[in-house]
Design a protein that fits this description.
The termini are close together. The chain contains 9 helices and 6 strands. The chain is 47% helix and 11% strand. A 6-stranded parallel sheet has the order 3-2-1-4-5-6, with helices on both faces. It has 2 domains: 140 residues, 3-Layer(aba) Sandwich (Rossmann fold); 90 residues.
Length: 240
């Protein structure tokens, strides 16, 4: 087994059970907008949100600001509410909802099973532990504190910290991440995450080893094969 020095974890749906976290925030959002929450609506939101970010990654969205503009990220995040709920929803209202939505995401945070034990063990073993996410930077520290794991993490990084506001699996994201960490020995880095698109394909794009957290025990396509695969977080302690 290769000896790694740095372990880079995704956050949502890897260290955190993001589904219940987002469900809570979505319920609060429907209340503010005057809708009646239902599981069916939440499922539709999840499908929409996934497609929205894929469209963003592939440049299919019309954004009136360039990526260096401080209004770019809030606008993109807020555009989701106009598209999903009502085209006539004002952008001012959408921005207000987005700000609240991010706050709501911080209120209820559920850790993945074995998260604390796994991070504690890896920290004690001397690995440099990093959290890198496509989510908002302002929510990372709060989430890690709520699952009582902030003390194990050495650095955090998010898409809105990149110069070009790029997301995983874009190789530019990983270039900026490694520059930020001032660490470029890719042979000693392992990316860990639940997403074949973001982490596994991202690692392939960046020429970095990957560990797919495949809790559903799905089958990876031949053109997107992870370096290793685990079904529970605790398995990582044995694999390393």
């Amino acid at each position: 087994m290769k000896k790694y020095e740095m372990l880079i974890f995704d956050l949502d749906d890897t260290l955190i059970n993001n589904n219940e976290n987002v469900r809570y925030a979505f319920k609060k959002m429907t209340e503010v907008l005057g809708y009646t929450y239902s599981d069916e609506m939440f499922n539709e939101w999840q499908k929409f949100d996934k497609k929205f970010w894929l469209d963003f990654y592939h440049g299919k969205l019309e954004i009136p600001y360039n990526k260096e503009d401080e209004r770019f990220v809030p606008f993109v995040q807020s555009l989701r509410y106009k598209q999903f709920f009502a085209p006539d929803l004002s952008m001012e209202k959408s921005l207000e909802i987005n700000h609240k939505f991010i706050d709501w995401l911080k209120e209820t945070v559920v850790p993945e099973e074995g998260c604390f034990e796994t991070l504690e063990y890896l920290h004690q073993k001397g690995y440099r532990l990093v959290v890198a996410t496509n989510g908002a930077n302002q929510a990372i520290e709060s989430k890690l504190r709520k699952i009582n794991c902030i003390q194990f993490i050495d650095e955090t990084f998010s898409a809105d910290m990149t110069k070009e506001c790029v997301t995983k699996p874009n190789p530019v994201y990983f270039e900026e991440l490694l520059d930020y960490l001032d660490y470029h020995d890719k042979d000693k880095i392992l990316l860990i995450g639940d997403s074949l698109h973001s982490e596994v394909q991202g690692g392939i794009n960046a020429e970095i080893d990957t560990c797919w957290y495949n809790r559903e025990q799905n089958i990876a396509p031949e053109d997107c094969t992870p370096t290793m695969e685990i079904h529970k977080l605790k398995e990582l302690t044995k694999r390393l």
